[in-house]
Amino acid sequence: MGFWDSMMGFFWSDVSFPLLVMVLCIAFVLLHFRHEDRASLFNTVSFFFICLFGQFFSALLHALEFQRAADVTHEIFVIGAGIAVIRLWGLLVFRIVLPAIRLKPPRITEDIFVIVAYMAWFMVRLRYAGLDLGSILATSAMITAVVAFAMQDTLGNILGGLALQLDNSIEVGDWIKVDDLSGRVVDIRWRSTLVETRNWETVVFPNSQLMKNKFMVLGRRSDQPVQWRRWVWFDVGLDVAPARVMSTVEDSILQTEIANVAKNPAPNCVLMNLDGKGYARYALRYWLTDLAADDPTDGLLRWHIMAALQRAGIKLAVEEQNIHLTKENEKYDEMVRQREVQLRVKTLRRVELFSQLNEVELRGLAERLRYSPFARGNVITRQGDERSHWLYIIINGEAEVYVDLPNGKRRMVRSLNRGSFFGEMGLMTGAPRSASVIAKTDVECYRIDKDVVEELLHARPGIAEEVSHILVTRRAELDEAMQNPDATGSHKDLSQQRSEILATIKRFFSLG
């Protein structure tokens, strides 16, 4: 046999070509579907070809009749090539095949199976090399016992990691709390579990610590979506009935779409304690759907609570202090109040309904306006509501007017900005709200209630006639904006409409 034939016969076997094709195919599939594993794939394939070259070198030694060196070198590189092939199969099965059938085992599971396969391949090759596996196993058992005794902590961490994975105590993506520290699990390794906190800290927990001590998995409940109950605390004076406080807060929150707040279970407000300092402690309980957004969502709900209580005329309780006021302070407060009244009068002059009022009447009305803030997303008025007999004037922010159509859809009619007013028909006639108004941004309003206007009309009944003209015009504008078919020909004439609205106003306010 010639030199070349001897070398190729030792290097190239019947399985060499299929093995090479298999490696290239697996590498191509992984490169196409797993771009993030490109570095690991490149290293594994490079190691395979290095082992292939090593086998070629052993064949060269065989042809040169260095038989012992050739056999040892060949066996070493065959084992190495097998390790590379096992690694490629591990990547293919655990990174592509199992996720394709919706199975996502943790990385530690992949490592275990690959290592077991490495050991099995190594033992098989030793058997082919003619070594006695029985004596090797007996010797390795003694070595294993010594190593296990010396590495108790490390083995405890490894076994703890396996136990955490096998019983699904925690999974990557879970939020856990250990003592006073909470964060999201980002990786479960052989020795430790990595947890990222909201403060951009990565905490390394030894697996044995998690197995020995108590920890909480936040937001997880059997057969339920991930959500975590949170508490937002606030205090109100004892002079306000608890039922009124709780209904005010709950109505505002339930009618508003707030990001990361679950609809089911619904948020609820409860009276938690009666403090000896003269106030009651309440809590709004809600379920958070994004556990990373706890503080921002708490803060947003506090603003909604504060705005709802201010609209209802309910003050948050604050610590009482005795303050000695001087005459200068009293003068300053009066100056601030007069300045605020002037601003309100200026705002009222822009409202058509009150264009006929004199300066005295405007000032009297301005002093009785109610400040009403709304948080973004609050429903300011709801279409069809028959109880809201008041008018709003926007002083800051932006709102949008919506109508609910018969087909169940909602359509935006127009936007309202600073200086806009709405609710005049409900205020003057008691008619149900014809549209919904929702705060697009944080909105500040002045509110005028029915009893304020009622006193004004009883003092000057003639104002009602002027108001009826304005209401007819405003209704026509709204019908046109809503593309109401009644606005295009089937309306009664304007004089008849004014007469009917005037009669409604007199009946609503009991005018003679």
Automatic annotation (TrEMBL):
Domain named Cyclic nucleotide-binding is located at 353-457
Broad class of the protein's primary localization: membrane
Localization (cell): Cell membrane
Lineage, broadest ranks: Bacteria, Pseudomonadati, Pseudomonadota, Betaproteobacteria, Nitrosomonadales
For molecular function, the Gene Ontology terms on record are: mechanosensitive monoatomic ion channel activity
Keyword Oxidoreductase among record annotations? no
Protein transport found in the keyword field: no
Question: Which Gene3D superfamilies does this UniProt record tie to the protein?
Answer: 1.10.287.1260, 2.30.30.60, Jelly Rolls (2.60.120.10)
Entry's transmembrane regions: 15-33, 45-64, 76-98, 134-151
**InterPro entries (UniProt xref):** cNMP-bd_CS (IPR018488), cNMP-bd_dom (IPR000595), cNMP-bd_dom_sf (IPR018490), LSM_dom_sf (IPR010920), MscS_beta-dom_sf (IPR023408), MscS_channel_2nd (IPR006685), MscS_channel_C_sf (IPR011066), RmlC-like_jellyroll (IPR014710)
Report the protein name in the record: Cyclic nucleotide-binding domain-containing protein
